[in-house]
Specification:
The complex is a heterodimer of chains A (147) and B (466).
Chain A (H helix, E strand, L loop, with lengths): L2 H6 L7 E2 L5 H11 L3 E6 L2 E7 H8 L10 H4 L13 H10 L4 E6 L2 E7 H26 L6
Parallel strand pairs in A: 1-2
Antiparallel strand pairs in A: 2-3, 4-5
Chain B lengths: L11 E6 L3 H12 L4 E7 L7 H4 L12 H8 L4 E5 L9 H7 L2 E4 L5 E2 L12 E3 H8 L16 E5 L3 H11 L2 H4 L6 H8 L5 E5 L11 H7 L5 E5 L1 H4 L3 H10 L2 H15 L7 E6 L2 E8 L5 E13 L5 E13 L2 E4 L3 E2 L8 E2 L4 E2 L1 E2 L2 E3 L6 E7 L2 H4 L8 H17 L11 H11 L6 H16 L11 H7 L3
Parallel strand pairs in B: 1-2, 1-4, 2-3, 4-20, 6-14, 7-8, 7-14, 8-10, 9-10
Antiparallel strand pairs in B: 5-15, 11-12, 12-13, 16-17, 18-19, 19-20
Helix pairs in contact in B: 1-3, 1-14, 5-6
Classes of the chains: A alpha+beta (147), B alpha/beta (466).
Chain lengths: 147, 466
């Protein structure tokens, strides 16, 4: 399984923000879409990622964080994925580097985002499916009839 | 007061399109829910089970045992099967909307991806799925022909379809004669002159999609030697690091099995199967008369993407491998259904967790859903479609609770059957299928085979006395 299989059943594109937008606007987007991170884009090229963490960190020490800009708080060193990256590799990299949200790009263009939750769910379903299929075959060993 | 939809007085009526594993899992989840649901399962073919009957290899009967679970689903009095009824041809979306509260598309991934290289359409180059459908007795493919007088064959891809195809090509007639392979395919394979079979993988042994039991089976073929090139099964530094890091024992074991194949000496069996890695086809070369004569390969190297996934990249080393027959198995795609929004990038119905979305607004379309390969793409084993179908059914029940269902003019089971009968008078019910099943099994018993399949629709009608 790869990232494309996750994006295929996520109808919505990644929610994006422009670097020059305010944190107040960014919070509005996070709230409206009920998500944990926004991808900052220039055109359709991802240039940063703004997570709820980034905002909490600033809010803890700055009463006026609302008026700061996305560009000030976003993480610029963004790891991106590609549609054909396999899930075990992606899961490993996200876990090791403590990444919760991975923008997915194809030929430099943002095409979606997967979260660590998406990856965990996809892998769980994958293993569940394998277990189920193996169990069925074991039952076949116990003298069942097949077509 | 009108009773709520999903009660005994007013059951939720659902049409499921496609009677493969996902169609049955979807029906199962719906029928087990707390609501009262009636499911009509449609398939364009007279027989149910989709790829379990027509895709799973005939020498892998155990995998087909899952049909016992499907039969239990079908025994529910609130389940009906309408076989031989094609969506958009026999029944349209508008027809279904007039009879059902919800419609679920479970139509799978019905076409193969093309390799996109010159010569792909030369005579002797086929999608592997056509060969699979042929040897499994698919009514639409039973009359395909493959030139099995060729001695050298290449199968492109290392997924389970590719492995099935090489195995069927390498099996002896005696090995195949105990399976439910289609009779005409058994006859054709009996006369096969195939001697050299190549399985071509674009990445290395550590990335190969085939499972360990599948690769072990290749080493135990009655009359085919298996071999690999030592330099191709040796892991490159990136793959070695990835395998060690992941501590994935199964993957380590797979590489060990392949290394053992590379050390094997042929012991004079009639056929030879060569497993190749790190090569991609760049061209099919013709013989001047329109037939495949060779496949041109480029050697690949692997590089790590930013997430650490290993992908192939062509080098400037080429070779020509003489072959007269090529089967491509480099991936599958869903086929768009008329009137149903499609996501061209992924080859699936445009959806969010199974809710079909409007192409423009990207908002859910009331009453339409997708599950299985047409929802997420062709990945996973049969059982993977069970949690996938469950996710879709959860959305359906949520929408039922919020009142977002269709308002059919004729939400009665009898009305639906009457309209199907009018459109397709010779449709096949599940009772019909169980009769056909008994006939096929009986025919098989005489030859000590699991079954002898009926492969023509008129044959099936005759067998049913219709």
């Amino acid at each position: 399984m790869n990232i494309a299989n996750i994006l295929a059943r996520k109808g919505s594109m990644a929610v994006t923000v422009r670097p020059e937008q305010s944190i107040r606007e960014a919070l509005g987007l996070l709230d409206r879409h009920n998500i944990g991170a926004l991808i900052a884009v220039e055109g359709d090229r991802p240039v940063g990622i703004l997570s709820e963490r980034d905002i909490v960190r600033e809010a803890a020490r700055n009463e006026t964080f609302f008026v700061r800009l996305v560009a000030d708080l976003m993480t610029r060193d963004v790891v991106t994925g590609q549609p054909h990256d396999d899930l075990p590799s992606v899961a490993h990299t996200m876990t090791e580097r403590r990444i919760r949200h991975l923008p997915v790009v194809d030929k430099g263009r943002l095409i979606g985002m997967v979260s660590i939750g998406d990856i965990v769910k996809a892998q769980r379903d994958h293993y569940q499916g394998e277990v189920d299929t193996l169990q069925t075959q074991l039952l076949a060993d116990e003298g069942g009839r097949a077509r | 007061m009108t009773p709520a939809i999903g009660t005994a007085e007013r059951p939720l009526r659902v049409a499921v399109i496609g009677a493969g594993p996902t169609g049955f899992y979807t029906a199962d989840h719906l029928l087990r829910s707390a609501r009262v649901v009636e499911v009509d399962l449609f398939d364009r073919l007279p027989t149910p089970y989709g790829l379990v009957r027509l895709g799973v290899a005939p020498d892998h009967q155990k995998i087909k045992f899952v049909t016992n679970i499907f039969d239990k689903v079908a025994a529910n009095p609130r389940f009906r099967f309408f076989g031989g009824v094609e969506f958009s041809k026999d029944v349209t979306l508008a027809d279904l909307k007039a009879h059902y509260h919800q419609i679920v598309y479970c139509t799978g991934a019905q076409t193969d991806r093309r390799m996109g290289i010159p010569g792909e359409d030369l005579s002797g180059s086929h999608p592997a799925t056509e060969f699979v459908a042929w040897y499994n007795g698919h009514p639409d493919y039973r009359d395909c022909t493959f030139d099995l007088t060729q001695e050298r064959v290449a199968v492109v891809g290392v997924g389970n379809v590719a492995v099935d195809v090489v195995r069927i090509l390498c099996r002896t007639p005696d090995e195949l004669a105990t399976t439910d392979i289609a009779d005409y395919a058994l006859e054709a394979l009996r006369k096969s002159r195939v001697k050299e079979v190549y399985l071509l993988g674009r990445r290395g042994p550590a990335q190969a999609a085939f499972t360990n039991p599948e690769v072990k089976e290749l080493g135990e073929l009655a009359d085919a030697d298996v071999t690999a090139r030592p330099e191709e099964v040796e892991l490159d530094p990136l793959s070695r690091a990835a395998v060690e890091r992941s501590q994935d024992r199964a993957r380590q074991k797979k590489v060990e099995i392949l290394k053992e194949y590379a050390r094997r000496q042929p012991i004079g069996k009639s056929r030879r199967l060569t497993l190749r890695f790190m090569v991609s086809p760049v061209e099919l070369i013709g013989d001047g008369a329109g037939n495949v004569a060779a496949i041109r390969l480029v050697r690949n190297e692997l590089y790590a993407t930013s997430t650490g996934a290993l992908q192939p990249r062509a080098t400037d080393h080429f070779e020509n491998l003489p072959v007269g027959l090529v089967f491509r198995s480099v991936g599958y795609r869903g086929v768009p259904l008329p009137g149903v929004p499609f996501n061209e990038s992924w080859g699936v119905i445009l959806n969010d967790k199974g809710r079909v979305l409007d192409s423009d607004t990207k908002q859910p379309i009331v009453g339409e859903y997708a599950a299985g390969w047409i929802k997420r793409g062709p990945t996973g084993v049969i059982g993977t479609n069970k949690p996938d179908a469950a996710e879709t059914v959860d959305c359906m029940l949520e929408d039922l609770a919020s009142g977002a269902v269709l308002e059919p003019a004729h939400p009665e089971a009898a009305a639906a059957e009457a309209f199907v009968r009018q459109r397709q008078p010779s449709f096949f019910s599940y009772a019909d299928w169980l009769k056909l099943d008994a006939i096929e099994t009986e025919r098989g018993r005489a030859q000590s085979r699991p079954r002898v399949k009926l492969t023509r629709i008129d044959e099936m009608l005759t067998a049913l006395g219709r």
